[in-house]
Amino acid sequence: MVGLTASDVHPTMGVKIFSAGAAACLADVITFPLDTAKVRLQVQGECPINSPVKYKGVLGTITTLAKTEGPVKLYSGLPAGLQRQVSFASLRIGLYDTVQEFFSGSETTATLGNKISAGLTTGGVAVFIGQPTEVVKVRLQAQSHLHGPKPRYTGTYNAYRIIATTEGLTGLWKGTTPNLMRNIIINCTELVTYDLMKETLVKNKLMADDVPCHLVSALIAGFCTTLLSSPADVVKTRFINSTPGQYTSVPSCAMTMLTNEGPTAFFKGFVPSFLRLASWNVIMFVCFEKLKRELTKSRQTVDCAT
């Protein structure tokens, strides 16, 4: 270990998982109001046709929500959101490099196929583990829009209990299929695009492997991801938030949206979704890279001292 710099020492899997979870939680706290605005815009339109439009645009949604329900409502579902990042993001991001190395085998450089396979694997595993937190988060963010002044749930753990007792344990995994589709798209697009952009910028000596490079790569990854994942994201939100019997299946939910609201319904909340995902990506990836380096440096210092 003597003579090696922090960049020469590869972070352990534990360091990656912890760094990913911590960075994702920080990003979630900062960008959560945008996520709430996205959810409110996505579920808008499920009400009867003669209902007045309640939210218009990102700032309009955030302002209206803060005025009518209080600023705290912008963070409704945050505990479930943080639980989601701990159980979901820590695995899908933290395990990505390790799984990629597994698929690469003896190859010195990972191919695009290896990167996509790693994204599919970590994304799929993370969805099944973190789905209950996604269900609770979405319902807490959207509940007042569909259910009037009296909320369905009074808090995070109350939501877990009521969903489990009224809909069964399977209710906590409602919408797993569209969420799996969404997260497969997100994981492959987000991680692969970020990885490829960073690799291209560094390899062609356009930028050094530092914060500006991570920032540019994260922004590009955020836009590509939002564009491709928006239809699955809207269907996922609608289906998860629906009351029992409202939709018979995920395709039924998608067809109802298409029939009643047209193709543009699949891109509802696109702007807040992009702003949230892009800013989330920037905060998460920059913090993730920095945290990995610092923890690896600390580990190296401890190893040298012993």
From TrEMBL:
<feature type="repeat" description="Solcar">
    <location>
        <begin position="209"/>
        <end position="294"/>
    </location>
</feature>
<dbReference type="GO" id="GO:0034614">
    <property type="term" value="P:cellular response to reactive oxygen species"/>
</dbReference>
<dbReference type="GO" id="GO:0036041">
    <property type="term" value="F:long-chain fatty acid binding"/>
</dbReference>
<keyword id="KW-0558">Oxidation</keyword>
<keyword id="KW-0496">Mitochondrion</keyword>
<protein>
    <recommendedName>
        <fullName>Mitochondrial brown fat uncoupling protein 1</fullName>
    </recommendedName>
</protein>
<comment type="subunit">
    <text>Most probably functions as a monomer. Binds one purine nucleotide per monomer. However, has also been suggested to function as a homodimer or a homotetramer. Tightly associates with cardiolipin in the mitochondrion inner membrane; may stabilize and regulate its activity.</text>
</comment>
<dbReference type="GO" id="GO:0002024">
    <property type="term" value="P:diet induced thermogenesis"/>
</dbReference>
<dbReference type="Pfam" id="PF00153">
    <property type="entry name" value="Mito_carr"/>
</dbReference>
<dbReference type="InterPro" id="IPR002067">
    <property type="entry name" value="MCP"/>
</dbReference>
<dbReference type="GO" id="GO:0006357">
    <property type="term" value="P:regulation of transcription by RNA polymerase II"/>
</dbReference>
<keyword id="KW-0407">Ion channel</keyword>
<keyword id="KW-0812">Transmembrane</keyword>
<dbReference type="InterPro" id="IPR050391">
    <property type="entry name" value="Mito_Metabolite_Transporter"/>
</dbReference>
<keyword id="KW-0406">Ion transport</keyword>
<dbReference type="GO" id="GO:0071398">
    <property type="term" value="P:cellular response to fatty acid"/>
</dbReference>
<dbReference type="InterPro" id="IPR023395">
    <property type="entry name" value="MCP_dom_sf"/>
</dbReference>
<dbReference type="GO" id="GO:0015078">
    <property type="term" value="F:proton transmembrane transporter activity"/>
</dbReference>
<dbReference type="GO" id="GO:0032555">
    <property type="term" value="F:purine ribonucleotide binding"/>
</dbReference>
<keyword id="KW-1133">Transmembrane helix</keyword>
<keyword id="KW-0677">Repeat</keyword>
<feature type="repeat" description="Solcar">
    <location>
        <begin position="11"/>
        <end position="102"/>
    </location>
</feature>
<keyword id="KW-0813">Transport</keyword>
<keyword id="KW-0999">Mitochondrion inner membrane</keyword>
<comment type="similarity">
    <text>Belongs to the mitochondrial carrier (TC 2.A.29) family.</text>
</comment>
<dbReference type="GO" id="GO:0070417">
    <property type="term" value="P:cellular response to cold"/>
</dbReference>
<dbReference type="GO" id="GO:0032870">
    <property type="term" value="P:cellular response to hormone stimulus"/>
</dbReference>
<dbReference type="GO" id="GO:0050873">
    <property type="term" value="P:brown fat cell differentiation"/>
</dbReference>
<dbReference type="GO" id="GO:1903426">
    <property type="term" value="P:regulation of reactive oxygen species biosynthetic process"/>
</dbReference>
<dbReference type="GO" id="GO:0017077">
    <property type="term" value="F:oxidative phosphorylation uncoupler activity"/>
</dbReference>
<dbReference type="InterPro" id="IPR018108">
    <property type="entry name" value="MCP_transmembrane"/>
</dbReference>
<dbReference type="GO" id="GO:1990542">
    <property type="term" value="P:mitochondrial transmembrane transport"/>
</dbReference>
<keyword id="KW-0472">Membrane</keyword>
<dbReference type="GO" id="GO:0120162">
    <property type="term" value="P:positive regulation of cold-induced thermogenesis"/>
</dbReference>
<feature type="repeat" description="Solcar">
    <location>
        <begin position="110"/>
        <end position="200"/>
    </location>
</feature>
<comment type="function">
    <text>Mitochondrial protein responsible for thermogenic respiration, a specialized capacity of brown adipose tissue and beige fat that participates in non-shivering adaptive thermogenesis to temperature and diet variations and more generally to the regulation of energy balance. Functions as a long-chain fatty acid/LCFA and proton symporter, simultaneously transporting one LCFA and one proton through the inner mitochondrial membrane. However, LCFAs remaining associated with the transporter via their hydrophobic tails, it results in an apparent transport of protons activated by LCFAs.</text>
</comment>
<dbReference type="GO" id="GO:0005743">
    <property type="term" value="C:mitochondrial inner membrane"/>
</dbReference>
